[in-house]
Structure formats: structure tokens, C-alpha cells
Amino acid sequence: MNASNAPTVTAAPASRPAWFQVWVPRLLGGRTACVVAAASRPAVPAPVQAAHQQIERAFIERARLDQALTAYEEGRMTDAARGFLGLAREGHVMGAYNFAMMHLRKELPRSDPKTAVRWLRAAASQGMPRAYFALGLAHELGAGTGHAPSETQAYPYYLKAAELGQVEAQVAVGTSLLLGRGVARDMPRAAHWLGTAARQGDPASQFMLGMMYEHGQGLSRDLHLARYWYEQAAENGDETAGEKARALSASLGPH
After folding, report:
1. CA–CA distance, 206 with 108 (Å, rounded to integer)
2. Which are the contacts of 44, defined by CB distance < 8 A and separation ≥ 6?
3. What pTM does this model have?
4. Distances (CA, A) of 68 to 10, 72, 76, 101
5. Residue 183, Cα to own-chain centre: how many angstroms?
6. Residue 10 CB neighbours (<10 A)
7. How far is Cα 218 from Cα 130, in angstroms, rounded to an integer?
8. Angstrom distance (rounded) from CA 235 to CA 245
9. CA 23 to CA 29: how far, in whole Å?
10. Residue 126 carries which DSSP code?
11. DSSP label at 39?
């Protein structure tokens, strides 16, 4: 190829940035073709800009949350509370929950259960199961609610948390239905919620489910299933469940 046939690249005018014109030389029948870019960069679509901003905010919020958690773990409660509260005021669910729990656990010089309940409600309004469960505890204990302790008022919060998958709440709902605490006794529904928690490895619900199978409460009596759930509870550290399982094995024989 001689010099006259070689492709050439023409620089963009000096008055414009290099990216204004992109020259793509190609040899087409001995001639040079060029593709000229638009005179300005294509605008970034608004949805893409919004997504980038959202990601950036998420990283910043995560860093701030980590700082507050580190302060909490190091015992710098004032710094932790300041960090959680700052996030809570911006609508951050973990900031609201953690700030509330510091008040509820009396970890601050001026801990206030009413403040705890207010921020727990803010976290619950964003669908946080643990916040609903904590509100149930607050109502059961009468802490910061403006009412006397009430299992009846606690039950709807436990139920909401249970429906959102919170295991402790599922145990609380199952126990309430089993014993008639704050709600009418309902053995089949108690078995449902205790079974849901038991299948997630909760030893207390496994033990209670074993009892329900052993005595036919809300479930068809089945000593083999009773032994199974006692054994599951025993494997998770419940010594009494182990004794119950061995007692049933003595009458049922080996598996």
C-alpha cells in the first residue's frame, strides 16, 4: 500500500474536545470514509441517572450505618445513637429500628420508651418484621405505649410480624393461640404457627408441637411425630425434650 492509498485520520477541530468527532477511516475502493459523531455527548437517560444516584445514596447510607454499628459495638453509645438518629430522620429503616431499641433497652442516659415506640412505628411502616415484633413486646409490657400492659393489644403486632416471617413472632402467636393469651384459644391455628416456627429450627416451638402431637391437641394424636419433634428440640438444646423423646421411645420401641 502506497502513501496515497493509506487511510487517514483527521483530528477534531482544535476548538472542540477530541470526543466531538470520531473519525473511523476505512479504505473503500481507494477512498477514505469517515463517521462523524454528534456534536455533543448523548444525554444520559433520566432513569439511568436516577439509578446511579440511588446506588450512590445506598453506598453512603451503608457506610454511615457501619460507622454507627461500630460505635455501638465499641460502647460509644452517644455516637451510635447520633448516627442511628441521623439515618432514621432520613427514612432509613435500620437507623429507626436501632435507635428505638437503644431507648427500649435503656442504653442511653435519657432513654425514653415513648421515643422507642415512635421510631419502631416508623420502621414498622416500612414493613420491618422485627419492628412489629418489638411493638408487640412494648404493648405486652406497657412500655411507651401510653397504655397498661396488654396481651390483647400486643397480639396484632405479633401476628403481623409472624406473617412477615419473623420466627420469634410465630412462636408468640402460636403460644398465644395455644394458651388463649390476648386472643381466643384456637388449637389448629396454634399448631399451624408453631409448626411454621418449628420447621425453621426453633426449639421452643418444636417442644410444644411435640406436646400437641402427644396429647392430640389441635392435631391428630401421633406419638411417632411427637417423638420426632421432641428429638428435634433436643438436638437444638432442650434437655426436657430429650427426656420426653426417650420416654416415648421406651413405649414405641426403636425407630
Report:
1. 37
2. none
3. 0.76
4. 56, 6, 9, 14
5. 27
6. 11
7. 28
8. 11
9. 18
10. T
11. S
| Total number of residues shown for the chain | 255
Query: Which of 128, 161, 121 minimizes the C-alpha distance to 144?
Result: 121
Closest CA to 237 of 210, 206, 215, 216: 206
What span, in angstroms and rounded, lies between the C-alpha atoms of 244 and 172?
23
Contacts of 169 (CB under 8 A, 6+ apart): 129, 132, 133, 136, 158, 159, 160, 161, 162
CA 151 to chain centre: 25
The CA distances from residue 115 to 35, 98, 122, 155, 172, in Å, are 65, 12, 11, 21, 24
Range 112-125 average pLDDT:
96
What is the three-class DSSP state of 32? strand
Q: Looking up cell 393461640, which residue turns up?
A: 177
Q: How many whole angstroms separate alpha carbon 242 and alpha carbon 210?
A: 11
Which one, of 170, 111, 114, lies nearest residue 138 by Cα? 114
- pLDDT tens track for 73-88: 999 999 999 999 999 9
Beta strands in the chain (DSSP E): 26-28, 31-33
Residue entry with cell 477534531: 12
- Report pLDDT digits (tens) over 95-116: 999 999 999 999 999 999 999 9
List own/partner pairs for 246-249 with CB under 8 A and 24 or more apart: 248/214, 248/223
Let me know if 87 is exposed, middle or buried by CB neighbors in 10 A (0-12, 13-18, 19+). Answer: buried
Answer yes or no: are the C-beta atoms of 63 and 45 closer than 8 Å.
no
Residue-wise pLDDT tens digits, 133-157: 999 999 999 999 999 999 999 999 9
